[in-house]
Amino acid sequence: MSPRESAPARRRRRFRKRCAAGTALLCTAAFMWINNTDLLADHSVEEHGVLAHRGLGQTFGHEGVGNDTCTAERIDEPEHDFLENTVPGMRAAFDAGADQVEFDVHMTADEEFAVFHDWELDCRTDLSGTTRDHTLAELQQADIGYGYTADGGETHPFRGAGKGLMPSLDEVLAEFPDDDLLLHVKSDDPAEGELLAGRLAELPDERLADLTVYGGDGPIAALRERLPELRVMSKAMMTDCLVAYEAVGWTGHVPPSCSRMQLHVPEGYGPWLWGWPARFTQCMAAADTRVVIVAGSGGFSEGFDDIGSLERIPDGFTGLVWTNRADETAAAIHGPNG
């Protein structure tokens, strides 16, 4: 500033600086708004897909459910005969219109993979101990419908009907060779991820493209290191992705930590993401990442399980919708053109 600058000149200079700063802020705000609204979204994209959690199985009330709750002992009155994590239940979900079916895997005592939800066997089956205490052959002799009851133990509608219904991972892959599958590794043991990586590495690339694996941080990190082309998700990976995205997502840029994943986003958290829902899901799709909307807080398997709940799916969402009742909701989720 020149010492001879007059007071009016100084005021004019400060005014121009403030105008320039204000204009820059307005331009930035306008860019952020336009870049994160549906204006830039591709509205020709199909609206929703369906993720059938554990195929088709028995449902239960989520009130008061904790990590140690035996949900088989509190099922709703059965409306069908299918049990979760079974080949018939998965087939029924696909027949109902599911685009992806989720199921749980456990490593067995003989280093095979059994498809079953619980770590402990006592809740649902006529065996005791954990899945790792038994060989695959022993587990496949179990009655997986043994513990189900809707009336506090007075009756057990699936006792005897579940004998021999626990499939292996190999059997599921063989039964659904061309379908989109989501594998859930229930442990946090890196050794389980390494064993699973060795099994999946035997599959052709085109089959791997239809598989997604999620679970504990340890096994999923081992999977990603061995099979970087596989779509995966863990809590740590999802946190890294979303923290980075919140920092830069307003620009439309998807950080590398969000590539080739499957993000499970609770419905209440979605509105806090840049570009939610249409722009966000489409930007993630460009990074080979799928987005799944889950009901409530995302805890304890909550899903969009009845027609009324589907009204909460935001307009413009183009990912997968998590449901425990594909038979009730798949057709409606897909819509009239599905």
UniProtKB/TrEMBL annotation:
Residue span(s) of domain GP-PDE: 65-333
PROSITE patterns: GP_PDE
Name of this protein: Glycerophosphodiester phosphodiesterase family protein
Pfam family membership, one: GDPD
InterPro entries listed in its UniProt record: GP_PDE_dom (IPR030395), PLC-like_Pdiesterase_TIM-brl (IPR017946)
Native organism taxonomy: Bacteria, Bacillati, Actinomycetota, Actinomycetes, Streptosporangiales
Taxonomic source organism: Nocardiopsis sediminis
